Amino acid sequence: MMNIAHRGGAALWPENTLAAFADAIACGYDGAELDVQLSRDGAVVVHHDFRLKPGLARKQGVWLSPPGPRIKDLSLAELRQFDVGHPEPGGDYARKHPLLQVVENAAVPTLEDVIHLAQDAPRRLPGG
Asked: Residue 44 and residue 22: Cα distance in Å, rounded?
């Protein structure tokens, strides 16, 4: 049996972030599942939903309101302006994930960022 870190370790770390994948590597998972989307300028970014998550994504300290912008409508530079590592205190996402570690200033990573992080890992990260 293999241990696969879902979205890099969702529910413990902000999903599909470099912090989540780094923890999966450190914990010795056999692999990690991840999701990809294309930004407006064609960057392959690691993010589960086709929109940024309200209650998790914020820009300049302000959390997004539903429904949140679509990934495909934002350039990579625009995506990098959002922090996706700190749930809104008391919000739905925070209540559903009470063990989630807060990661300040966590940007939406590119697939290349995750591959670079995992290139020396002894396991099969990324992938699954």
From this structure: 19
